[in-house]
Write a structure and sequence with these properties.
By secondary structure, this protein is of the alpha+beta class. The chain contains 16 helices and 28 strands. Helix 14 packs antiparallel against helix 15 (459-470) and helix 15 (459-470) runs antiparallel to helix 16.
Amino acid sequence: MKRGLSILAIVATTAAIASCSSTPDAAGAVGEPQTGGHLTVGIIAPCGLDKAQTSGCTFTNVEIVDNLTEQLPDTGEVVPWLAKSWEISEDGTSYVFHLLDGVTFSNGETLDAAAVKLNFDNIVELGKQGRAFQSSAYLLGYQGSTVIDPHTVQVKFDQPKAGFLQALSEKPLGIIAPETITTKTPEERLAHGVIGSGPFVISNVVQDQKIEVKRRDDYQWSSPKNAHQGPAYLDGITFQILPENAVRTGALLSDQIQVATTVPANDSENLSGQGFDIASRSSAGVVYTYYANVKDGVLRDESVRRAIQSGLDRNEIHDTIFDRYQKVPTSILSSTHPNFTDLSANLAYDPDRAREILDRAGWEPGPGSIREKDGQKLSVSIQFSASSDKPLHELAQQELKKIGIELRIDQVTAAELITNRSSGSWQLQYGNLTRPDPDVLVSSFGPGFSLYFTEDYDPELQSLLAAQSTELDPSKRNEQTAEIQRIIVEKGYAFPTTEGSQTQAAGPKVHGLAFQAPWWPSYVDAWIEQ
């Protein structure tokens, strides 16, 4: 059996972090955190209050539920949390978790092995109902859980599960109270939230307006990533739903809110110049990228894809569209991902190389400087729905025209985007995916898991994607992940444009803003200078 980390790891990690819990203010002075006060945070739509069912874009559940493991944002290391230690079988199919004593949910129920089993069984059932795509995917191959004793649970899979410990740190696998599962329908959980063991408790929900949470005063099992142990500093938080960027920024400037999330690039520098503090973290996962439909008549030509890769000027894209809180992508994975491999040389802007590739492939200059081959125009379409992405696509259009490729900009509804993707009626689509584990590449590029690659298309790549998912040796898995990144970039299965980030802006009296490893904001260490 392979030993997991012991409870001592929590104590040691916590001590190291807590030693620097004082927070520098805007002037550079250091003040001690103060307890009390209420924070109002402007957010985009929360997409449902049960992260097991809606993994994306909700901020409010990050500290309502706790997890069996935690992933440290700075290192990517997975460490114990509610599970104080674990053992993994030699074949990687069985995990035995030993739970912390004394952990309770906010309704008074005790965290025990039966609660963990109920959570995992429920997620698998929700997956069968089509309600929990990401969380049930984390449990793919789940054979069941066995309660060994009240604080020990065994989880079995039908094959090695290399990414399972990391998956347990993600909020879609956060542990919720049995009462939530046995008394609330999935729809009720989405609308009104769940009962967790976290430092905050949902106290009020006004649909499409706000979610209010209050501090749990008896909280004593903080995440190892936090800068302090025990209850949160804030009395409570109101998450004000403000979908429009300009409205969030205006509310911050007028002190209607104290923190604005998802700050757009064109506002961040202005807010910083007016004395607001900016906190930002790149999304740890697959960067924002153009996914290529490799079954399309034009894009099945690898030469075309390789030319597009060299024909995009990512530095110009960054300098024109984004701000200093965004990063120029240097791989298909972001630089905050634990398995990031620097492929900046492969992504360098080289229009001469792009033209040479197309010349060799028989794509010759035609009318309007757009190339042709066998009577076919070298034209591809980017389908998208978000208006905020249009300037990026327009700049890419200008860049690709310089090498003889026409990029058509096709804005459709979100529903049409999904329909076209399902039917294969698309050439390029735009998106990203956040998860600080190599399996994020499976979710993005593995047939059977990916939204964009639904059929077999590259045996070597697909073999590597499958192999890393079951490889228990971290160094070997990292080597496989590096090769996967290289293949995706070199063969042009996707064209990175920006790393993407979650950027928050706050007034100078708000301190302690932080992030989880993926990129979600964290407020347990936040405090207000009185």
